[in-house]
Amino acid sequence: MGVVIPLEDKNRNTASIKPLVDLTKPDMGRVNQLILEKAGSDVEMIPEVANHLISSGGKRLRPMLTLAAASMFGYEGDGHVKLATSVEFMHTATLLHDDVVDESDLRRGKSTARMIWGNQASVLVGDFLLGQAFKMMVDVGSLDALDVLSTAASIIAEGEVLQLSVAGNMETTEDDYLAVIRAKTAALFSAAAEVGPIIAGASKADRDALRSYGTNLGLAFQLVDDVLDYGGKAQDLGKNVGDDFREGKITLPVVLSYRRGDDNDRAFWRSAIEEGNNDEAALETALALIAKSNALNDTITRAEHYGAIARDALAPLADTPAKAAMLEVIDFCIDRIN
Amino acid sequence: MGVVIPLEDKNRNTASIKPLVDLTKPDMGRVNQLILEKAGSDVEMIPEVANHLISSGGKRLRPMLTLAAASMFGYEGDGHVKLATSVEFMHTATLLHDDVVDESDLRRGKSTARMIWGNQASVLVGDFLLGQAFKMMVDVGSLDALDVLSTAASIIAEGEVLQLSVAGNMETTEDDYLAVIRAKTAALFSAAAEVGPIIAGASKADRDALRSYGTNLGLAFQLVDDVLDYGGKAQDLGKNVGDDFREGKITLPVVLSYRRGDDNDRAFWRSAIEEGNNDEAALETALALIAKSNALNDTITRAEHYGAIARDALAPLADTPAKAAMLEVIDFCIDRIN
Hints:
Chains A, B: Belongs to the FPP/GGPP synthase family. The structure is a homodimer. By secondary structure, chain A is an all-alpha fold.
């Protein structure tokens, strides 16, 4: 697919994830080791399936957030490594189940586990990783962290079900859609960030700040992901332009393009999303309508709004390398577009 | 299906679950209320799917075990109600995922959730219930109970994957099969029983006793379930004779019949289980081979062996109404056959 919708140049220096990667490097080494260890099992199929996804080159942004958030408040134990690993396992379990739910063939440019080992193994290995995640949290022994992460697990599943029920309904409002991504994406970012101050014994205000940072970073991250599916450098990220479209997914660019369109445009979107008329010609039309409605640039503007809230959430905190790295990650998530 | 394999009369008075039901009645009222409350969500599909299965008339044996085991050691708080509800949610989540994995159409004589709402909702509502289960455990605040239950969650999933990998392999030994049911069934019975003494602050010896009771009761329970699928009063329990056979499931009656058979018998089993030649005529043959090999009676004898271990596990404990009820449940699980 060569269609890339040109985006406004926001004239910002490109932000990087590198400061966060450097800051968390030693601890991430331990996280990566623990991931391999805890995805292990005498039942051979489990490490095979788990490692297929685990080794497929995700950025591991969520566990890095946990580690950075703990270091921000001077945490010196090693519970943060277990919590970060738990967070990544929760994420991996969600991806395994998502691929079954969405009937996806590809993730990050590789065949999904369900295409290789079947839906059965994807469901069950997801369950296993979730169980292992909870065991590690219990090992750490912080009931507050357990509360935050188990609540997130419920909310994520609730968000996925909510997404099912808005699926194929073009009358979905921006608020409806935000409720979905707040639950299915932002809740885990939020929990990943909040367990840092929790385990470090930081104040309630600090917990609140990190939770707000995580939530809003997660919203910005998901909105930019939605944009990447219709343009930007999607190809480089192992995504194909139009994957969401072909799966009939409602995302913010689609919501905006539908609501801003004329009767013909809306008829097109209903036919494409509600009736599944989503071949390559339809994708070309979709891209043209999205361009006409300026939906991608405005989705990015919305993402920037949540990015700004995330930034202000951290504003009162002392300037530390961790804070600087976490602030830069906000811009990095948004700048992935360019 | 009118085929019922006659079983030896063991000349035992029929044991009842009634003492356990009576003992736990007030607390089970609270469990049932909490089940409804915690299966609730603003996302409408969640209580719909959850209540479909929850209201389908399971015995709720596992939560009753938790309540009885807590009362056995004089527990007077109300954490046992939350733990019992967590145990039932873990069980319900497993059933929802199992039906997807096994592609089952019926459970307890009703359409499975996946047949009504699809695999997607079954996977996700299972995840939601698991999340709610962990939240309730965290609420109770016992790290030891959390450890036991989260370990069980991992083991159950591991057992389900193990079952996948032995599926369709007629060389599966009795030991292989026991490893599967030890993980997928007995682990939750074991955890359900052990969290009783944990929350009551009982001794390690008491915990060990209840864990052993739960494990062995679970093994006996599953083996009798396997027998019921080929005879006994399966129809009354909302099961159809031959469901396991039609799904190509390897259970102990099949393992025994295969190993005890001659070359022709073994060729039949391989064709039926490994190649899926499992029509009604094949079922008739299977029932005849199982009868010839005495596999059902011997599976019941195996179940009685585990029942005896469960009984001895409780032997050193003081005689209480809870102990009497839990002992009678062992016989009840086995006597379901008659």
